[in-house]
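Q&A log
Question type: sequence-to-structure
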Amino acid sequence: MRIALFVTCLADTLFPEAAKATVRLLERLGHEVAFPPGQTCCGQMHVNTGYQEQAVPLVRRHVRVFDPYDVIVAPSGSCVGSVRHQHAMVARRAGDVRLAARAESVAGRTYELSELLVDVLGVTDVGAFFPHRVTYHPTCHSLRMLRVGDRPVRLLRAVRGLDLVELPAAEQCCGFGGTFAVKNADTSTAMLADKMRHVMSTGAEVCTAGDASCLMHIGGGLSRMRAGVRTVHLAEILASTEQDVVTDGRGGLVVGS
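Response status: OK
Response body:
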């Protein structure tokens, strides 16, 4: 299958390993991954902060770039949620009925990574190996907008060597919410403190999720606390194999960066 990678802004600029891992994983499963070079921001930030008119050119560009592809994947529930739930709405409010119809068509072919693997490709065991204790944070957009359910957990349970521990109060928001964390910093920080407390209570070495934005927020807090817990995108875990395992010089195992 030929699959177009919708890389997202955060993966492109700050967390490229999540995008690279997505490509490695899909290619290992026998699929061709295309990277449309004309892609830019999907416009989610603009829409969420009230700049719908300014988002229209971004929606139009996104539709033009990805319309030629039958299947599109992104390592982000947040951006896929925007494509599915905002693009056609933005186009309709701008009075562009044709764009709205094309946006709906593209949205129907756009998947978050765990959706693509489980629902489209029909696989839960991707041949991954990750010998670490891991807890999973279900991000708000993937949980509430996309309703990915237990798909990420099913994928993680099939990873050899991985010890998956349940995260208490998992469905509570981590406090990021894009510009919410900037405009409501005190509230965001309090929500983050709760999330970090729950993560650390699991004794996990790694906290994973399907959105780099939430991992950036949680990981930043854990780093400042010197908690000894690192954040790793779901794609990076699923892309890991025995060949990626190296020793840390003390006989321990380290997978990924």
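Response note: The chain has two domains: 2-120, 133-247.
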